Amino acid sequence: MSDFKPGDRVYITSRRHPWSGHTGVIAGPYVVPSLPDLKWTVSVDGAWGEAAVADSDIRLAQEGTRP
Length: 67
Known about the structure:
Layout: E1 9-12, E2 23-29, E3 38-44, E4 50-54, E5 58-60
């Protein structure tokens, strides 16, 4: 079970993720056919799009966390 929920501010920590080092807000569940571990859609700060992430790719962002 995930500890994350829509509206959580997160930091993408996985070095293998294309948006590694960026922060954003969980917009909702990732609901398209994909790898089974991709669970969330994150609206990335300053980006025109969203990122699909697994629980293991993110952590809750601390206030003031910047890329």
